[in-house]
Automatic annotation (TrEMBL):
Residues 71-182 form the 3-dehydroquinate synthase N-terminal domain. It is found in: Cytoplasm. The lineage of its organism: Bacteria, Bacillati, Bacillota, Bacilli, Bacillales. SUPFAM superfamilies: Dehydroquinate synthase-like. Its EC number is 4.2.3.4. Zn(2+) binds at E187, H250, H267. NAD(+) binds at G109, A110, V111, G112, D113, T133, T134, K145, K154. This is 3-dehydroquinate synthase. Binds 1 divalent metal cation per subunit. Can use either Co(2+) or Zn(2+). Coiled coil: none annotated. The gene is aroB. It catalyses: 7-phospho-2-dehydro-3-deoxy-D-arabino-heptonate = 3-dehydroquinate + phosphate.
Length: 374
């Protein structure tokens, strides 16, 4: 469906305007950018997996005269630890980066969040570039949220720091394992719920097998997701209000990630579970009218496991949700939907959280059992 080739979106925020290139010519666009910039040195931060698979492609963008060094971090959430953050800063100092140096985040959201935070804080802030390599990173590479995890909460330490540009060479996505396609697709679905019923209808009708998304559809859905996010970030860069809607599914989702142990579930799977829970809360609190059962069936077809692990402790989740960045005075606030495309932020009492959780557990267990019986 729709456009091919190189797509360009401009992200306009109060602090910076920058381009997002998507598609075949993105690496050429990155080369052009690097050749015309005044960077004294480039630090590439990547993880061991992406480094092994794709570093050679990135190297083609760096001319022979360009001075660069590479710091490799453990894959996934292991990258977003204090110890890795400190090691990255040490590496930058030992390799003589200065205030005119630039960091390239080459990887998925975990690498992007870490590298962005290193850039935001090294010598009080240097420039950085996002070169995303996952579907999920259509979300994480845009908008300037950077940070690392604390054992007591996801992304609890961080900064808003916008990149100089986002160069999304989607050929690199071909090596993604199914679990990571599924994780990234969850944020696409989230964007559709927040802003666009038609887009959600398109996804539910056209995507029935995550291993068979055509290149044209992929470029289309990445572009669409980025446009939805760009529109929100344009209005509220630092989450003073509206931007919180991008957190649909994240209140329970982040609690799941924190309590299961970072990296035990993928970010996207946790967020999809949180999103379904938010739909049940919406039914109860905002009179959302929607066929949640049909949506759940579609998710099960795509391989999402909505059942909560038996060892998950909802009391601990409530503690985490009270500590969430959207909470004030220890009261959990959720992104709910009045309609698809019409999100609201609402404080939810503990009694409602618990009774909806019971309902949600029963419904999702039933979905899981039906799947096993098939
Ligand atoms: N800053 C934001 O606005 C924002 C938005 C959404 C999510 N996030 C964060 O992003 C993180 C999740 O992002 P992610 O899933 O992209 O993270 P990730 O960087 O952990 O990548 C996921 C896995 O895929 C592997 N991988 C990456 N690219 C690959 C490729 N092309 N081929 C094969 N394997 C590849 C990685 O090595 C890793 O094991 C979470 O920490 C989440 O909190 C941030
Ligand atoms: O960009 C945003 O704003 C988002 O909320 C996007 C989320 O998908 C992302 O996971 C983000 O890192 C969550 O932000 P946080 O402030 O809850 O840590
Ligand atoms: Zn997210």
């Amino acid at each position: 469906m729709k456009e091919e080739g190189n797509l360009l979106i401009n992200i306009e925020t109060s602090s910076k305007t920058y381009p997002v290139f998507i598609g075949e010519n993105s690496l050429q666009a990155l080369t052009d950018h690097l050749e015309n910039a005044d960077y004294t040195k480039i630090l590439i931060i990547t993880d061991f997996t992406v480094g092994r698979l794709h570093l050679d492609e990135l190297r083609t963008c760096l001319s022979r005269i360009m001075d660069y060094c590479i710091f490799k971090v453990p894959a996934s959430e292991q990258a977003k630890q204090f110890s890795v953050y400190e090691e990255a800063l040490t590496f930058a100092l030992e390799n003589d980066l200065d205030r005119k140096s630039c960091i390239i985040a080459f990887g998925g959201g975990a690498v992007g969040d870490l590298a962005g935070f290193v850039a935001a804080t090294f010598m009080r802030g240097i420039r950085f570039i996002q070169v995303p390599t996952t579907i999920l990173a259509h979300d994480s590479a845009v908008g300037g949220k950077t940070g690392i995890n604390h054992p007591l909460g996801k992304n609890m330490v961080g900064a808003f720091h916008q990149p100089e540009g986002v160069y999304y060479f989607t050929d690199l996505l071909e090596t993604l394992p199914l679990s990571e396609i599924r994780s990234g697709f969850a944020e696409v679905v989230k964007h559709a719920f927040i802003a666009d019923q038609e887009f959600l209808d398109f996804l539910m009708e056209s995507i029935t097998d995550l291993t068979k998304i055509s290149r044209t559809d992929l470029n289309y859905i990445l572009k669409k997701g980025i446009e939805i996010k760009a529109n929100i970030v344009h209005q509220d860069e630092r989450e003073n209000g509206l931007r919180a809607v991008l957190n649909l599914g994240h209140t329970l989702g982040h609690a799941l990630e924190t309590n299961a142990g970072y990296g035990t579930v993928t970010h996207g799977e946790a967020i999809m579970t949180g999103l379904v829970y938010a739909l049940y809360l919406s039914e109860a609190e905002t009179d959302l009218v929607m066929d949640i059962h049909r949506f759940e069936q579609w998710l099960v077809t795509l391989g999402y496991r909505l059942e909560i692990p038996a060892q998950f402790d909802f009391d601990k989740a409530i503690t985490s949700m009270k500590r969430d960045k959207k909470s004030f005075a220890n009261k959990p606030r959720f992104i709910l939907l009045e309609e698809i495309g019409k999100p609201v932020v609402k404080e939810i009492g503990e009694e409602q959280l618990r009774s909806t959780y019971e309902k949600f557990i029963i419904a999702t267990q039933l979905q899981g059992e039906t799947k096993k019986a098939d």
